[in-house]
Amino acid sequence: MEYWKAHRTLKFARELEMGSLERGYEDLPAYLHMIRRANRGTLTRLNVDDSGRFKYLFIAFGASIGGFNFMRKVVVVDGTFLHGKYKGTLLTALAQDGNFRIFPLAFGVVDTENDDSWQWFFTQLKLVVPDNNGLALISDRHKSIRKAIRKVYPLAARGICTYHLYKNILVRFGGGNLFRLVKKAANCYRMDEFQSVFDEIETLHPVLHGYLERADVRMWARVHFPGDRYNLTTTNIAESMNKVLAKTRSFPIVRILEEIRLMMTRWFNDRREDALAMKTTLTRGVEKLLEDRVSGAKQATVQTIDSRHIQVICGSSLHVVNLDSKRCTCRRFDIDKLPCVHAIAAAEHKNVSRVSLCHTYYFSSLLGNAYAGSAMPNDFAVPVPDDVGIQVCTPPIPRNQPGRPKISRMKSCLEVASEKKRRRKQHTCSLCKKEGHNAKTCINH
Fold first, then answer.
1. What PROSITE patterns does the database record attribute to this sequence (predicted)?
2. Please, what is the angle between helix 206-214 and helix 191-204, to 10°?
3. pLDDT band at 7 (very low <50, low <70, confident <90, very high)
4. Which residue from 173, 167, 176, 181 is spatially nearest to 207, judged by alpha carbons?
5. What is the pLDDT of residue 431?
6. What angle (nearest 5°) sits at the alpha carbon of residue 379, between those of residues 246 and 47?
7. Apex CA 117: angle with CA 114 and CA 118, to 5°?
8. In 10 A of CB 441, how many CB atoms?
9. Spatial separation of the C-alpha atoms in residues 166 and 172, rounded to whole Å
10. Considering just the CA atoms, what is the radius of gyration of the chain in Å?
């Protein structure tokens, strides 16, 4: 069988199973109406041009809108290409729950990533996530995203994905010691540490230093970020979501939305049950993170300074902890809103529960509240109103490229290097033979 005959056969089989791409656009008004009817509080928007051709789509399930109230106010936005005859771009707005898992907030489909489409998407998103000083938006360095955020979200703090920044630096300036210094500068918690590394970059490579300054240190350096971005320095959760939806990106548009709904139904149910099964005050991910820090805290030397301040010495570093204001001079406690090694050592010294030092966003009770809603399926037994049935939505003008359609994108040099990198060997304790600690910090002997 010839290639193109096999291609047409596969295309015909898909249309029999999922419907045609054209029918997907025609069914959009009815589908969105049924989704709103089945899911109270759901926001949908459909934008067509003067001739009735599809232009933009936005959907945010009521379960996501209600659940975001119990999340850290950090939203990661990104876009990924759709495949098929009519192309388009799938836009996503995501958060991260208190157990460090992806929380789907809103989705959009637009013709292409440009100033108008991103501004329209953020305008709809603002109805779900209001603009305020406590909000942080993380994205790549797309110029249209920057312009849209400035117009629609003037109060929110904007950060750029450090992973995309690293890729650009690797291509323009190469790897080696300079690359490691940039990563170190981006992840510094203390201003003096950042300035020391940044000055070293300027000495070694003034051009790279200028590039980083033009990128605006407030957007990529953790220590300079004007708002709260917690542990979210990249758009990795958006890339993970793109991978989850990778197989659906060639489906008819209604089928893409239904696959998103099925995913959310499954995720919300599983995570709700998981949150209810948690016996600890903190979420499972946070408990594991703090357990790893406890072993280091046991090696610290603690000395009370006064009623509010406690001195903690870990190795060659000395830090001062204030348990009342939940601050530490290492600034990890301040930024992540989770107790650092020094804070845990001070809490043990003062007989203070480390749970009380964590932000409430990390409590398992709030995690259960975040997933209290459900993404319900459509009820096809109830007919669609006539005014919805007569709405016209036809496919956009196709933009087919010559040659074989591309399914996967070309990987960047940073991704290729990461795949080839040998996995770091985990240290094993010589006493209990378990990983993650050594004989000096072993608690089993």
1. ZF_SWIM (PS50966)
2. 130
3. confident
4. 173
5. 77
6. 55
7. 80
8. 13
9. 10
10. 25
Neighbours of 412 (CB within 10 A): 16
Mean pLDDT value of segment 273-289:
94
Helices (H) and strands (E) in the chain, counts: 19, 11
Alpha helices in 153-190 (DSSP H): 162-173, 177-187
Count the Cβ atoms, other than its own, within 10 Å of residue 334.
Answer: 17
- What is the predicted pLDDT for the residue at 417? 55
The Cα–Cα gap between 122 and 139 comes to 13
What gap in Å lies between CA 150 and CA 350, rounded to an integer? Answer: 46
The β-bridge relationship of strands 317-322 and 327-328 is antiparallel
Q: pLDDT band for 419, please (50, 70, 90 cuts).
A: low
Examine the pLDDT at 67 and tell me if it is beyond 70.
Answer: yes
User: How many other CB atoms are there within 10 angstroms of residue 378's CB atom?
Assistant: 18
pLDDT digits (tens, 9 = 90+) for 135-149: 999 999 999 999 999
CA distances from 89 to 86, 113, 134, 145 (A): 10, 7, 29, 14
What is the band of 444 on the pLDDT scale with cuts at 50, 70, 90?
low
Token digits of residue 375: 């993404």
Picking from 394, 378, 301, 372, the residue whose alpha carbon sits closest to that of residue 342 is 301
Residue 43 burial (CB count, 10 A): 18
Residue 406 has pLDDT above 80, yes or no: no
Sequence length of the chain is 445
pLDDT score of 415 more than 60: no
In contact, 76 and 232? CB cutoff 8 Å:
yes
Cα 51 from chain centroid?
36
Q: How confident is the model at residue 443 (pLDDT cuts 50, 70, 90)?
A: low
Mean pLDDT over each residue of the chain, to the nearest integer = 90
Q: Token pair for residue 188?
A: 């510094």
SS3 (DSSP) at 381: coil
| H or E, element range at 79 | strand 74-81
Closest CA to 163 of 75, 236, 76, 238: 236
Does 426 score more than 80 pLDDT? no
